[in-house]
């Protein structure tokens, strides 16, 4: 069979079934590129519908570098050719595959498959981290790639060889034709231009614009947002038209005069919503102002509008709009999603099996809070692919290769797990690679627990030389898993380079401590950062995560200096890590653009060197925090301040001992006499820091928040009173007197007691 015959057969079968086919051109790079030109010619595709993803330039077809492959998401191509020889990544593979239309071909240019496990250097570079060199990186994922390519239906393989003395292919041998010989043909479906409004207030044009009946059904569900106290959860695999359905709903709501707020991790995620909404409104002749890239907004002649805001901005505006539509909701922290429930009506749209992350953790982490809200919840799932037929072999190959559909064990198998009934287990990378069910369980747990698990994380899990995986098992099933990354132990030259600003891959905690906090010695001790920890949702809050951390500490504590963690700070997470012996050494001065969270770094010492490092940075954290709270951290959530300071641990010398008799008379004067807080704020700052670092329960939560917002962050009385729900500003000011009395009673001693007697 010639290459032209193979391509003709693949193309014909793909067209008959409205599926895609995958063609691998294995061999030297130049031969693969030349063969790709022959494939394009043989496939009789529109040259404008071909994309070449490669580092090479000079192609007459649309070309993207591998780093820009994400630009293909949301587009439709007849053929995409991915040059895997340079800058290949698992993320890029997922992104390009999603752009191929039904009847089209995905073409991979690879080294000879027998050599591939020792090639694809870019994969090696992505997981090789100091002090390990490239030789320490495994090739388990590359073996997995070869195995799925050579066994999965719908994948054709042709070996391309080039003669040494010519520029073109010498020969092409077909090793596998990739034909599935389907018995049922599925021709492309015509555009479903149903005029049935499904009993909704949305215009007929919204349903006529739907590409499938499945999408029209989703738009009908979203029409519930026309009424208050409604919430719609829309879930779909990539390529089902989720964002388009949300855009048609947004346009329909704006046409009816509604104020619609759209949010997503970035505007790029929500751009299809605006595209579809604008097209619908323009067709209805209701568009007043089109969207612009600086401040995306559509307005209508009926008084409606559609705006985009980042998740933190949307949370602040939620109460003031009619509807909030959240796209890629699983990539937004639960606390931020919960704040969006202040809107009268809200939609949460998320991708279930995404190429750049997953949305399945959304259901686990957020559903309880959504159910407790005032909203009536309507669920809808899009299943029918827009671009190709259901059951497409390229999609199933991609899911299999990248574990996009990995699942944790079913609830019934682990629901009875307790800290007493589980066993601790080391999971080697070889065990994970050799046991597909084990790998799917572990990766499935990580995917559900973390909103940003990418295909590249699978490569790291299997091949990164700095990773260790530990798990708790119940009756042979993984119920909790931790991924730990070795960091530190860097030589003097590399530590100096890091201090001078050089980024060092795979050493997150030492990097921050060295470059940002100016501690050149911080990268010398060796530690393990808990990069990921996940517990099965069926046994959450049962102590399994803490037990796993304790077992890791017992195992690793004798051979490293510290264990550490970095995460988006929430009060709950700060309390969790504090309870497990970790101490705060840093809160980032800026918040994450997507989540709005400030990062927290925490350490748990294991050796004398680790204790010295931890104590040094905990002390620096305590010393710099008061000034930061009145400056760059003046808007930080007071509960995060409280959690971060409490997790720093009590100081070696109680700071209340710094107060002299006069200071206590000042505090007592505020509590019992005519004194005012404004006369001595520095005294109250000392007391506030001492109490928050070692909270002893004398104050209520609201009083502790008052200490943070007024005393440490310097907020005006009026805004503090409003934020903390005091009936009036004067009542808020009087509460400072109650705080002073509590401190006098608990810590003031004879001096405070004498002052109290004087005023009584």
Automatic annotation (TrEMBL):
Pfam families: GNAT_acetyltr_2, NAT10_TcmA_helicase, TmcA_N. Acetyl-CoA binds at residues 533-535. GO terms for cellular component: cytoplasm. It catalyses: a cytidine in mRNA + acetyl-CoA + ATP + H2O = an N(4)-acetylcytidine in mRNA + ADP + phosphate + CoA + H(+); a cytidine in RNA + acetyl-CoA + ATP + H2O = an N(4)-acetylcytidine in RNA + ADP + phosphate + CoA + H(+); a cytidine in tRNA + acetyl-CoA + ATP + H2O = an N(4)-acetylcytidine in tRNA + ADP + phosphate + CoA + H(+); cytidine(34) in elongator tRNA(Met) + acetyl-CoA + ATP + H2O = N(4)-acetylcytidine(34) in elongator tRNA(Met) + ADP + phosphate + CoA + H(+). It is an enzyme of class 2 (transferase). Residues 167-202 are annotated as: Disordered. InterPro entries: Acyl_CoA_acyltransferase (IPR016181), GNAT_dom (IPR000182), P-loop_NTPase (IPR027417), TcmA/NAT10_helicase (IPR007807), TmcA/NAT10/Kre33 (IPR032672), TmcA/NAT10_N (IPR013562), tRNA_acetyltr_TmcA (IPR024914), tRNA_Cytidine_AcTrnsfr (IPR053477). GO terms for biological process: tRNA acetylation; tRNA wobble cytosine modification. GO terms for molecular function: ATP binding; tRNA binding; tRNA cytidine N4-acetyltransferase activity. Residues 442-551 form the N-acetyltransferase domain. Keywords: Acyltransferase, ATP-binding, Cytoplasm, Nucleotide-binding, RNA-binding, Transferase, tRNA processing, tRNA-binding. Residues 5-158 form the TmcA/NAT10 N-terminal domain. Its main location: cytoplasm. HAMAP family: tRNA_acetyltr_TmcA. Catalyzes the formation of N(4)-acetylcytidine (ac(4)C) at the wobble position of tRNA(Met), by using acetyl-CoA as an acetyl donor and ATP (or GTP). Belongs to the TmcA family. This is tRNA(Met) cytidine acetyltransferase TmcA. The lineage of its organism: Archaea, Methanobacteriati, Methanobacteriota, Stenosarchaea group, Halobacteria.
């Amino acid at each position: 069979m010639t290459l032209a015959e193979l391509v003709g057969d693949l193309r014909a079968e793909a067209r008959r079934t409205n599926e895609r086919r995958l063609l691998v051109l294995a061999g030297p790079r130049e031969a693969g590129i030349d063969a790709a030109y022959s494939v394009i010619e043989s496939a009789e595709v529109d040259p404008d519908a071909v994309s070449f993803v490669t580092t090479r330039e000079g192609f007459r077809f649309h070309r993207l570098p591998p780093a820009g492959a994400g630009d293909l998401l949301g587009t439709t191509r007849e053929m995409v050719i991915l040059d895997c020889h340079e800058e290949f990544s698992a993320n890029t593979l997922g992104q390009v595959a999603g752009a191929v239309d039904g009847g089209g071909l995905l073409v991979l240019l690879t080294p000879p498959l027998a050599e591939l496990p020792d090639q694809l250097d870019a994969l090696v570079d992505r997981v090789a981290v100091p002090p390990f060199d490239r030789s320490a990186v495994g090739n388990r994922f590359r073996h997995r790639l070869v195995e799925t390519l050579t066994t999965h239906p719908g994948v054709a393989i042709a070996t391309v060889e080039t003669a040494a003395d010519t520029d073109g292919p010498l020969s092409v041998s077909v090793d596998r034709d990739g034909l599935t010989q389907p018995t049922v043909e599925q021709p492309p479906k015509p555009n479903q231009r149903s005029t049935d409004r499904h009993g909704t207030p949305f215009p007929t044009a919204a349903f006529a614009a739907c590409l499938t009946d499945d999408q029209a059904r989703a738009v009908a569900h979203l029409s519930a947002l026309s009424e208050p106290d409604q919430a719609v959860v829309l879930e779909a695999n990539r390529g089902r038209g989720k964002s388009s359905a949300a855009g048609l709903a947004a346009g329909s709501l704006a046409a009816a005069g509604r104020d619609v707020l759209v949010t997503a991790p970035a505007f790029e995620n929500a751009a299809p919503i605006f595209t579809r909404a604008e097209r619908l409104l323009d067709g209805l002749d209701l568009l007043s102002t089109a969207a612009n890239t600086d401040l995306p907004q559509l307005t209508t002649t009926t008084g409606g509008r559609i705006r985009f805001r980042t998740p933190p901005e949307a949370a602040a505006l939620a109460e003031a709009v009619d509807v909030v539509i959240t796209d890629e909701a699983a990539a937004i922290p639960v606390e931020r999603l919960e704040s969006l429930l202040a809107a009268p009506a809200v939609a949460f749209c998320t991708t279930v099996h995404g190429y750049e992350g997953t949305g399945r953790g959304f259901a686990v982490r957020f559903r309880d809070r959504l159910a407790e809200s005032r909203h009536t919840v309507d669920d809808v799932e899009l299943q029918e692919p827009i671009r190709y037929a259901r059951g497409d072999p390229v999609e199933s190959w991609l899911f299999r290769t990248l574990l996009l559909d990995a699942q944790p064990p079913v609830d019934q198998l682990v629901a009875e797990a307790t800290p007493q009934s589980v066993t601790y287990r080391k999971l080697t990378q070889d065990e994970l690679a050799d046991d597909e069910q084990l790998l799917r369980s572990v990766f499935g747990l990580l995917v559900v627990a973390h909103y940003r698990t990418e295909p590249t994380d699978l490569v790291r899990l299997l091949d990164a030389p700095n990773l260790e995986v530990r798990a708790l098992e119940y009756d042979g099933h993984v119920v909790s898993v931790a991924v730990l990354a070795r960091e530190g132990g860097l030589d003097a030259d590399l530590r100096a380079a890091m201090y001078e600003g050089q980024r060092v891959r795979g050493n997150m905690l030492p990097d921050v401590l060295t470059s940002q906090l100016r501690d050149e010695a911080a990268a010398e001790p060796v530690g393990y950062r808990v990069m990921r920890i996940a517990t099965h949702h069926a046994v959450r809050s049962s102590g399994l995560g803490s037990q796993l951390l304790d077992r890791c500490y017992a195992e690793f504590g004798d051979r490293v200096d510290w264990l550490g963690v970095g995460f988006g700070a929430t009060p709950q997470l700060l309390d969790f890590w504090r309870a497990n012996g970790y101490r705060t050494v840093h809160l980032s001065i800026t918040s994450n653009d997507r989540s709005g969270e400030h990062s927290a770094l925490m350490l748990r010492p294991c050796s004398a060197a680790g204790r010295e490092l931890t104590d040094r940075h905990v002390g620096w954290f305590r010393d710099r925090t008061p000034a930061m709270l009145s400056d760059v951290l003046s808007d930080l959530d007071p509960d995060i301040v409280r959690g971060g300071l409490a997790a720093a641990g009590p100081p070696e010398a109680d700071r209340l001992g710094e107060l002299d008799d006069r200071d206590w008379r000042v505090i007592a004067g505020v509590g019992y006499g005519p004194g005012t807080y404004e006369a001595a704020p520095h005294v109250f700052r000392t007391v506030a820091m001492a109490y928050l670092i070692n909270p002893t329960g004398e104050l209520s939560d609201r009083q502790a928040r008052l200490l943070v917002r007024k005393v440490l962050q310097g907020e005006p009385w009026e805004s503090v009173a409003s934020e903390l729900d005091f009936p009036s500003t004067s009542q808020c000011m009087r509460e400072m007197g109650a705080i002073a009395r509590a401190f006098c009673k608990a810590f003031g001693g004879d001096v405070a007691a004498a002052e109290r007697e004087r005023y009584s």
